[in-house]
Amino acid sequence: MPAPTAEVIMVHMKKKGGLMIAYCLLMAACAGLAGADWEGRIGQFSLNDAQRELGQPESCVGLDQGGTACSWMMGKGKDWMDKLVLTFDANGQLTTVNRVHF
């Protein structure tokens, strides 16, 4: 089988280029959320802020001391997943940040 010509390669790249750009933008957006300075937001960031930025949490549980811990899925593969677990005090302010890799 002969090697594809440069013209054939360019046509193929043009067809797939939009998809590649969309994929790169999505990866950059996800990396931006995962790489955010969450520790710097402690005491200044609320559960409502987190929901606006990250969407609905995957789960939330009430804590004995009156706060709430919520988790968001940040990435998932065949054999792994990354979660961001944020804990909020009784007033809804961020108190702890945990990144968990399963």
From TrEMBL:
Q: Tell me what this protein is called.
A: Lipoprotein
Keyword set for this entry? Signal
Q: What does UniProt list as this organism's lineage?
A: Bacteria, Pseudomonadati, Nitrospirota, Nitrospiria, Nitrospirales
The superkingdom of the source organism is: Bacteria
Question: Does the keyword field hold Signal?
Answer: yes
- UniProt source species: Nitrospira moscoviensis
Where does the UniProt annotation place the signal sequence? 1-36
Is this entry keyworded Signal? yes
